[in-house]
Amino acid sequence: MSRPQKEGLDYFPFDVALQKDKKLRRPKMKYGYLATEVYIALLTLLYSEKGYYIPYKTSSQKEDCIWYVMDILQGKYQPDANTIAEIIEELVACELFSGDRYPENITSKRSQAVYYSATVERKSVVIDDSIWMLSLSEMKDLSEKHFYYLSKVSQTKNEDNRPTNGVNRPNNPQRKVKESKEEKSKGKDGGSNLLTEEEYTSICATIGQDAADYYLERVAAFLEKKPTATFNVKATILKWNKEDKAKELSKVQNKSVKTYTTEALNAKFDSLKYEDL
């Protein structure tokens, strides 16, 4: 069974000027040292679990987050759950975390930039577009080699190159019929360079994680050369794997089959004794 895909980070850079961050002034005035401690505990949870955000939408997610912080700060001066919840609100109000993504998620552009830079060498990274805030230009400044960046560039270029005639208007019935026919003809091979976590897990279960990662490297290399290309990553990987296996099988079969000329066959029979026939 394949290993589950890693999401979080093993470590993250700690800003030495954190204690003097101006955005922490107001929270520290209200809650003292606890504001800084809660902030650091949240960053630890954020980077170690999902990598760039903390789910905070449901009551159970909020409870898990708050209890995590309480466990980190356990001791004589451990804050209660209500105090931690209030400090989180204050950290968002002071823009240490994004107000646009709160209260569904706790995240920030800074944490996403850290995560992006730390996962450049990963073969596949699952990123939720509804939470992600870094623009293409911001990701490009950090690195142009990230699998997610290459996928988004390819997707954007293909969208820009689509015809703008009447058939391709979003609400045009002809366009909807055309797309429906295309989807039926394409099936799972419809054009998309994004790989979901479920698809990656499925590929690993089919061909093994090492093979999956090897083919993902080939996909990334291909996208670097042809960023406008659009294809289904999962279907392409399985196709490549099938073709490679067929080539290996052909090599084995070719090696195991011996061929003889007419002269060689005659010599073979001439060497046989009557008893051997």
Description:
By secondary structure, the protein is mainly α. It has two domains: 18-118, Orthogonal Bundle (Arc Repressor Mutant, subunit A), CATH 1.10.10; 136-255, no CATH class. It is built from twelve helices and two strands, in the order ααβααβαααααααα. A two-stranded antiparallel ribbon has the order 1-2. Helix 2 crosses helix 3 (59-72). The chain is elongated and about 100 Å long. 23% of the residues are buried. The model is unreliable at 165-190 (pLDDT under 50).
- Which secondary-structure class do the elements indicate? mainly alpha
Number of strands: 2
Helix-strand pattern: HHEHHEHHHHHHHH
Figure out the total of helices. 12
Strand order of the largest sheet: 1-2
Mean of residue pLDDT values: 81
In short:
This protein has 277 residues and is mainly alpha-helical.
Question: What are the defining features of this structure?
Answer:
277 residues, Arc Repressor Mutant, subunit A, 2 domains, 12 helices, 56% helix, elongated
Please render the helix and strand layout as text:
Elements: H1 25-31, H2 33-48, E1 54-55, H3 59-72, H4 81-93, E2 105-106, H5 109-118, H6 136-142, H7 147-160, H8 173-186, H9 197-207, H10 209-225, H11 233-256, H12 262-270
Antiparallel strand pairs: 1-2
